Amino acid sequence: MKRISLLGSTGSVGTQTLDVVSRHPESFRVEALAAGRNAELVIEQANRFRPRLVSVATKEIADRVEAHLPAGTKLVYGDEGLIEAATLPDADIVVTAIVGSQGLKPTLAAIEAGKPIGLANKETLVSGGHLVSEAAKRKGVRLLPVDSEHSAIFQCLNGEPRSAVRRIVLTASGGSFRDRTRDELVGVTVQEALAHPNWSMGSKVTIDSATMANKGLEVIEAHWLFDVPFEQIEVIVHPESIVHSFVEFEDRSIVAQMGVPDMRVPIQYALTYPERFASPAVPSLDLTELGKLHFRKMDYDRFRMLRMAFDCGKAGGTMPAVYNAANEVAVARFLTGDIAFLDIESIVETAINGHRPIAYPTLEEIGEADDWARRTANGYGR
Ligand SMILES: NC(=O)C1=CN([C@@H]2O[C@H](COP(=O)(O)OP(=O)(O)OC[C@H]3O[C@@H](n4cnc5c(N)ncnc54)[C@H](OP(=O)(O)O)[C@@H]3O)[C@@H](O)[C@H]2O)C=CC1
Ligand SMILES: CC(=O)[C@@H](O)[C@H](O)COP(=O)(O)O
Ligand SMILES: [Mn+2]
């Protein structure tokens, strides 16, 4: 029985993680649920999975939830509550499915507590990749990728030494505006941007897909997860999201991982690794029905957020944290209708051009760079 602490239980990855759990009740038990503001859903989840601990974002939400929890479930809230969920002694694995760089501290705390991580929250590795990697190595803790591309690469690598790897290739669907020119991006609506062609996901990552920032974050995530230099990481467009990513080895063999686009597959593999369980709810991929798959070169002038991510990743230090934090604010502002779609990249560009990076930042320095980037991004155009 694997005991799970799930951070971000009410989101897209969180609810799909609970779906996986509910299909294998003999193998998994939920020990902790950490949600943000969705009181109604976390109450429902708590009554269904009866965890030892529930955490919510604020005291106000906790007051709304308290009376509705099952007997024996402890309620906590805020940053401390999240850390308590991340470090629960009874948990065997912590799934980090909250969104944004707020995932960094609880992830570090979970690692320090010796917990393997099912890592969905890519912003964590972008913000503090060196700290997370160092802590995971020091504690001998595994970072098990949940992000579909990284789960694919993890499966393709299958323990091969890094010296055998020629390049890692991440596939990008192109997002909701894949076939539009830059001129055609002027005036696009939030609703259009949220219409991802292949995946149903939270709003932040869906907008990131549309700007290609998602692939930028994933490039940096891959660098840290697989200890591969940026020069050996490539991105290509693959509209169907069937080949989830691939690895070319030095002997020119290419190993790819494929399947229907369904996050329950990588989520489950992170939970069951090194075993594979059945996925009865996931349809089998029929290549003869598909007939064709398409691949094309990435256009870095069209998708500038990806170019900026490579530049920030190579610059290192606090630069990726600034890229990420400015992007988080810009996406939030776009979602509320405060700025136009193309302003997202202008905001990120302004932040990274104005930042004086620190080479080997501490957690505190990352926090300061993150705060500075948020202030800069919030001030843009006001
Ligand atoms: N969705 C997907 O298919 C994929 C997502 N990812 C990554 O996984 C992460 C989660 O994405 P996704 O599930 O789409 O995001 P969602 O927006 O759907 O969910 C975010 C989750 O974070 C929770 N949350 C927000 N603030 C807090 C807080 N202060 N304390 C505790 N919980 C909080 C939300 O709670 P509440 O709703 O209660 O406020 C919610 O449960 C992201 O980093 C994303 O990039 C990676 C690959 C695929
Ligand atoms: C499901 C998943 O892992 C997402 O991060 C997905 O990769 C988004 O797709 P694109 O960024 O390729 O549009
Ligand atoms: Mn992904």
Defining key terms:
382 residues; alpha/beta; Rossmann fold; Rna Polymerase Sigma Factor, Chain: A; 2 domains; seven-stranded parallel beta sheet; five-stranded mixed beta sheet; 16 helices; 12 strands; 46% helix; binds NADPH dihydro-nicotinamide-adenine-dinucleotide phosphate; binds 1-deoxy-D-xylulose-5-phosphate; binds manganese (II) ion
Explain the layout of strands and helices:
Blueprint: E1 2-7, H1 12-23, E2 28-34, H2 39-49, E3 53-56, H3 59-65, E4 74-77, H4 78-86, E5 93-96, H5 104-112, E6 117-119, H6 122-139, E7 143-145, H7 148-157, E8 165-172, H8 190-193, H9 203-211, H10 213-226, E9 233-237, E10 243-249, E11 254-258, H11 264-272, H12 287-290, E12 296-297, H13 304-315, H14 319-335, H15 343-354, H16 363-379
Parallel strand pairs: 1-2, 1-5, 2-3, 3-4, 5-6, 6-7, 8-9
Antiparallel strand pairs: 8-10, 9-12, 10-11
Helix pairs in contact: 2-3, 4-5, 5-6, 6-10, 6-14, 9-14, 10-13, 13-15, 14-15, 14-16
Bound molecules: NADPH dihydro-nicotinamide-adenine-dinucleotide phosphate, 1-deoxy-D-xylulose-5-phosphate (DXP) and manganese (II) ion.
Residues 8-14, 34-38, 57, 82, 97-99, 102, 120-123, 147, 199, 201-202, 204-205, 263 line the site of NADPH dihydro-nicotinamide-adenine-dinucleotide phosphate.
GO molecular function: 1-deoxy-D-xylulose-5-phosphate reductoisomerase activity; isomerase activity; manganese ion binding; NADPH binding
Cofactor: Mg(2+); Mn(2+)
Binding site for 1-deoxy-D-xylulose 5-phosphate: 122, 148-149, 173, 196, 209, 214-215, 218
